């Protein structure tokens, strides 16, 4: 498997030719939340990965929907971009509800 | 613990003045409680240490399947069989999570297996002891999982993100393991004369090996300082061992069993139990390959791996063929 | 009638018990961690189903025995599982082939049992069917993958099929218990399931590049308990050792 630099946390993976590729697993639980990254596993292909995810990551009834993504297919931001990518939003406190101070009489909002 | 003989690759602990600016910034992040993530810069020693520690931890989980797996086919009731199988299955899961965490550091699972099989990497000494009666399923759950939990709970706060996240999941899943073991002990200790004997015998055999799980005494463990500064080791060996003794002795009393240590006494001044050290010569024997089951455990792992090669290859070949067929059809 | 129903329930429970036991033997030594975990899930499902079937069997028998008594204190000639499930695991290929042959029967069988005139049986079947459907998906896909995979994996799967085939057909030979159950609309005759089973096999083995024998010979004696293989006794010696060695103890 080729080594990709712009990949997930598993970017450094240097698994050999004969190793099942690594998959990142996302599961949506019972409560209608978004799919959430739960971990990784190895599988020969996507169908196998979904089944393995079912067996490995939903043993305690955790999920109702599974997404699998090949780890090497994920493009990720690089840590050195952390400043330019995330700092601009740090001072936009007006995006957060607590920015707006309202009198108690106005009720819950 | 599950990584009881990890040697730091870094030499002595560096002072701030000796650190490069990059190393200093790294240490600052850790001191501030920030998590280190896979793509972040990290000292080579940190990376290597983590690979060894997480690798040993992962190996311990999967080798740890074997002594308990030894009793799955002999579990005495359908319920016990299901409980034990679920528990040993969890250990496979925990091994899997940990291998994945190690993989984020640039080593593949196959490479880690290779290092286990060739003896380059170790696993916890405790799994080189045999499980001889059903009471051992109780003792392993109660003592071995009990000791493991002491170490794993603080590791949820370890500095390396993927490791910490794996530990969170593992701790959540492990909560039933120790209880399951203690319940077996309780049933045996209140059972027939034979069962009581088995329970006491299991405690006799597993007490000192359980104490050894925390690794050598702090005074002989020169490498802890760096690991603790990096927050990949959260407590000293002796701290955790003492905590384990303090919590376990009253549980043994509750079971009506005798801890096999004639020097065990409550020390009013320290507020802790005084206890006898395990035989560290035995510990080093086990670590260096001369434990009662080292050969069998490694043989079993290697055989599983070798016998499974055709399956792994077959599945992969099929996946590639299907991919090629799909591509050809488009 | 009670006796026939009891026998019928033992057949269901013993199939799950014996196969669940066999599959659990893989724990810790499967070809990959993911497969290890998946096999344990299958075994856990089967052990769970065993409890449901044998609890009901014990209740129907009305002699004060428990599911555990039935599992751990009967000897081989009182077991009513089909021979196929008691055969040793051998390699992963034989284990998965055996699982597939069983699952391919179990899915249509449990589907039919969902409309049993006996509500308790219908309930157990509904619950078990969900599990069996997943088992079949997994075992079928694995058989196809390994049949298609490499030259070696294909050869091993063909060998597994050839080895197991003479044991696969036992279940379709209706006997007086089956006929009694069919009369009461408790269960269909197993032979009625054969067509569906044959179709699943045909489709799967075509995709897996495996050749199914034309030979319809089938060993029998498991479901009736008249003649088990030698393997069952060894399995029970292991499984029952604690209950046999320490009579009356609570575990």
Give a written overview of the molecule:
Chain A has 109 residues and is an alpha+beta fold. Chain A has one domain (16-106): Phenylacetic acid degradation B (Ubiquitin-like (UB roll)). In chain A, 19% of the residues lie in helices and 18% in strands. In chain A, strands 2-1-3 form a three-stranded antiparallel sheet, covered by helices on one side. The longest helix of chain A has 12 residues, at 46-57. Chain B has 13 helices and two strands; from the N terminus they run ααααααααααββααα. Chain B has helices at residues 21-31, 44-63, 65-69, 78-103, 109-117, 135-155, 161-189, 193-212, 224-229, 237-255, 280-290, 294-307, 309-329, and strands at residues 265-267, 272-274. Chain B has a two-stranded antiparallel ribbon. The model of chain B has no long low-confidence stretch (mean pLDDT 94). Chain C is mostly helical and 251 residues long. Chain C has one domain (2-245): Ferritin (Up-down Bundle). Helix content of chain C is 67%, strand content 0%. In chain C, helix 1 (2-24) runs antiparallel to helix 2 (33-61) and helix 2 packs antiparallel against helix 6 (119-148). Classes of the chains: A alpha+beta (109), B mainly alpha (330), C mainly alpha (251).
What shape does the CA trace of chain C take? Answer: globular
Q: N-to-C SSE series of chain B?
A: HHHHHHHHHHEEHHH
| Topology pattern of chain C, helix = H, strand = E | HHHHHHHHHHH
Helix content of chain B: 55-70%
Summing up helix and strand content along with how strands pair, one would put the structural category of chain C as mainly alpha
């Amino acid at each position: 498997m080729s080594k990709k630099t712009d990949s997930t946390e598993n970017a450094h993976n240097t698994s050999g030719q004969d190793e099942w590729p690594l998959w990142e697993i996302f599961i949506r639980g019972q409560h209608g939340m978004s799919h959430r990254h739960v971990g990784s596993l190895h599988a020969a292909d996507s169908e196998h990965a979904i089944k393995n995810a079912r067996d490995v990551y939903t043993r305690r009834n955790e999920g109702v929907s599974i997404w699998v993504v090949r780890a090497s297919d994920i493009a990720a931001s690089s840590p050195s971009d952390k400043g330019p990518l995330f700092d601009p939003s740090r001072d936009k406190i007006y995006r957060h509800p607590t920015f707006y101070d309202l009198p108690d009489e106005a009720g819950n909002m | 613990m599950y990584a009881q003989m990890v040697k730091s690759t870094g030499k002595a602990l560096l002072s701030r003045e000796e650190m490069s600016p990059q190393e200093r910034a790294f240490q600052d992040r850790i001191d501030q409680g920030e998590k280190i993530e896979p793509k972040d810069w990290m000292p080579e020693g940190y990376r290597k240490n983590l690979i060894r520690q997480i690798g040993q931890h992962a190996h311990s989980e999967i080798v740890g399947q074997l002594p308990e797996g030894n009793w799955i086919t002999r579990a005495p009731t359908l319920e016990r069989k299901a409980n034990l199988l679920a528990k040993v299955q969890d250990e496979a899961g925990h091994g899997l999570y940990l291998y994945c965490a190690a993989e984020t550091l640039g080593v593949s699972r196959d490479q880690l297996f290779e290092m286990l099989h060739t003896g380059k990497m170790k696993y916890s000494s405790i799994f080189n002891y045999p499980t001889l009666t059903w009471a051992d399923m109780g003792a392993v759950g109660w003592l071995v999982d009990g000791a493991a939990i002491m170490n794993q709970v603080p590791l949820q706060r370890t500095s390396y993100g993927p490791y910490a996240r794996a530990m969170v999941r593992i701790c959540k899943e492990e909560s039933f393991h120790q209880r399951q073991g203690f319940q077996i002990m309780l049933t045996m200790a209140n059972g027939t004369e034979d069962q009581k004997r088995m329970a006491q015998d299991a405690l006799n055999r597993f007490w000192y090996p359980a104490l050894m799980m925390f690794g050598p005494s702090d005074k002989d463990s020169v490498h802890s300082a760096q690991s603790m500064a990096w927050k990949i080791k959260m407590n000293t060996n002796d701290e955790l061992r003492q905590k384990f003794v303090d919590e376990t002795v009253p549980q043994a009393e509750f079971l009506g069993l005798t801890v096999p240590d004639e020097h065990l006494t409550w020390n009013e001044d320290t507020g802790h139990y005084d206890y006898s050290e395990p035989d560290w010569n035995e510990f080093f024997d086990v670590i260096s390959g001369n434990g009662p089951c080292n050969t069998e455990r490694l043989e079993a792992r290697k055989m599983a791996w070798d016998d499974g090669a055709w399956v792994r290859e077959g599945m992969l070949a099929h996946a590639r063929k299907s991919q090629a067929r799909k591509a050809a059809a488009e | 009638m009670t006796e026939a129903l009891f026998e019928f329930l033992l057949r269901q429970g013993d199939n799950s018990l014996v196969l669940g036991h066999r599959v659990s033997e893989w724990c810790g030594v499967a070809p990959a961690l993911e497969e290890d975990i998946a096999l344990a899930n299958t075994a856990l499902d089967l052990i769970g189903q065993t409890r449901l079937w044998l609890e009901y069997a014990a209740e129907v028998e009305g002699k004060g025995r428990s599911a555990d008594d039935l599992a751990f204190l009967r000897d081989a000639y009182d077991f009513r599982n089909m021979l196929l499930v008691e055969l040793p695991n051998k390699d992963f290929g034989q284990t998965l082939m055996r699982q597939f042959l069983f699952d391919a029967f179990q899915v249509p069988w449990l589907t039919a049992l969902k409309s049993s005139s006996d509500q308790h049986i219908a309930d157990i079947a509904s619950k078990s069917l969900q599990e069996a459907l997943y088992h079949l998906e997994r075992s079928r896909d694995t058989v196809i993958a390994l049949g298609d995979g490499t030259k070696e994996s294909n050869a091993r799967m063909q060998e597994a099929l050839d080895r197991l085939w003479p044991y696969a057909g036992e279940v379709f030979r209706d006997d007086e218990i089956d006929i009694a159950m069919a009369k009461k609309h408790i269960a269909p005759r197993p032979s009625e399931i054969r067509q569906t089973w044959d179709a699943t096999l045909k489709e799967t083995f075509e995709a897996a590049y495996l050749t199914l024998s034309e030979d319809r010979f089938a060993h029998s004696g498991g479901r009736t308990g008249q003649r088990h293989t030698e393997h069952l006794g060894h399995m029970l010696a292991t499984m029952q050792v604690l209950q046999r060695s320490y009579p009356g103890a609570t575990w």
